[in-house]
Hints:
Elements: H1 11-20, E1 24-31, E2 41-45, E3 57-63, E4 69-71, H2 80-89, E5 93-100, E6 108-113, E7 116-117, E8 123-125, E9 129-135, E10 143-145, H3 154-163, E11 167-174, E12 184-189, E13 197-199, E14 203-209
Parallel strand pairs: 1-3, 5-9, 11-14
Antiparallel strand pairs: 2-3, 4-8, 6-7, 6-9, 10-13, 12-14
Amino acid sequence: MTVPDITGLTIDQAIQLLEDHKLRYSITDSLFFEDKPRLSILEQNPEPQAKVKEGRIIYITINSNTAPLVSIPDLLDVSLRQAQTMLQSVGLKVGQLIYKPDIAQNVVLEQRFQGQPIAIGNKVPKGSNIDLVLGTGLGDSSSVVIPNLIGLTLQDANNLLTSSSLNLGSAVFQGKITDSNTAVIIRQNPDFVEGITLKAGQAIDVYLKQE
Length: 211
């Protein structure tokens, strides 16, 4: 008989399909991929469309239900680019970039998890976002011009604020939103006024609407 394709199915769906084909199964391994459904089938052996006898065991690898824990690397005093590489190498991602006045530009001053400082070596689930507090390269009294964010998407606004040594504050969506990636900023606080400045590291709140 022909082996069915069970990759991508949930474990329950796969078992049912194999039983319908009078095949047996054995879970031989589990891995973890953040972009795959939990408890879904990642691999099978024999492969789909293979010819086997009734009652043959199909060996399967599933996507784990829980992310493995990984240790927080030492990111202090390294550049943003280095921190991104180090986080990626252990299966973590860069979260929010928070700027503070400091003469060290784009150098990590502090690392945070879920809004709280986290010590080097502490364990967090693989795939987690680690927020980075970075230096602006400017002193405490330094100020930067408020950028005009009106009409920008949230991602574009965040990039512009980062390059301006400012932070993104609250993002409030107004009206019906079907795709937050295409929503644009209709208001910002503080408002954009030509030549007006803020202290480096301050946050700007934005209000978005989908056109």
